[in-house]
Amino acid sequence: MNRFRHVTFGLLAAFCFSSALAAEVIYFGSVASESPTVMIARMAPLTDYLSARTGLTVRFKPAPNLGAAVADLVSGETSIAYLTPVAYLEAHEKAGAVPLVSPLTKGVKTFSLVVAVAKASHIKTCKDLKGKAFAFGDKKALVQRAVVDECMGDVNGLSQIKYLEYYDSIAKALLLGDFEAGILKDTVFDHYSPKGLRKVHESAQLPGYVVAASPKMNQEARDKVRRALLTITASPEGRQVLDTLDVVYTGFAAVEDKEYDAIRKLLRRLDKKPAN
Questions:
Q1: Mean pLDDT by 10 residues, the chain (276 residues)
Q2: What CA–CA distance (Å, rounded) separates 51 from 67?
């Protein structure tokens, strides 16, 4: 009889624990690679998918910029976040953020950054960038500055720097002639290149975006989210969600912190260089 009571109590406790996980709202944050309205449209299907597949209640919490996305994860406002490499490194350093998965583009989880100009531009090499007006994305996207520094030898040789937040905004500004050069993610450059852009420099392959979790997030919930993302292409519904997130994504792969050492190394270029 006592054994029966112990088994019953254990099953009841497990049920209550699982129910508590489902009842608790888990907020999924993100860097603002596009406008908040667009980000909600991209991310909401993913959080709905995770809710259905994990039994958790997952909701999207948009952030106005990269810094806010990191602050939300560090403070506990969000339990999971879709972050750029630099944002992840900051969240890892400040709060021990745990990398879960990285998106795949054509089966690859790395990306490159491209220094681009209008096709008619007289800029041919990295040396020609000196004294030019340059468009970056977010102020906290330090990898962008490091890549341009690698290209020029000294990023501070630019005459003017503006931060336009989104890669699409940079590409459109270059096409309009608002800036002489700018930096784009490889997939964005590929999209706009036929419309009138040309490549001046391309970085080495770098580890890409990452879905990271707060170390405070329950391990069971963390594992459920990871499994759901790793198997997202197993169903037509999952593939549709993935297409909505980014049409170039073909799935997710497990990722480890050490893979971001390449970004850490690149950022050391800027350690002793004051920002413009």
A1: 46 44 80 80 95 96 89 95 92 96 92 96 95 91 90 92 93 96 94 97 93 95 97 94 92 96 88 55
A2: 26
What is the pTM for the complete model shown?
0.73
DSSP string, 138-159: -TT-HHHHHHHHHHHS-GGG-S
- Tell me which of 179, 203, 227 is where a domain ends: 203
Asked if 132 and 174 count as a contact pair (C-beta separation under 8 A), the reply is no
Give CA angle at 135 (198, 86), nearest 5°: 105
Domain boundary (167, 186, 203) is at 203
- CB neighbour list of residue 249: distance below 8 Å, 6 or more residues apart: 103, 104, 105, 242, 243
Q: Tell me: do 32 and 71 sit in the same domain.
A: yes
- For 165, the domain range is 113-203
Can you tell me the distance from the alpha carbon of 211 to that of 222, in angstroms, rounded to the nearest whole number?
11
CA distance 255 to 106: 17
pLDDT attached to residue 247: 87
pLDDT of 259: 94
- Beta-bridged to residue 60, according to DSSP, are 28
- Alpha helices per DSSP H over 153-203: 167-176, 186-192
Query: Do 190 and 214 belong together in one domain?
Result: no
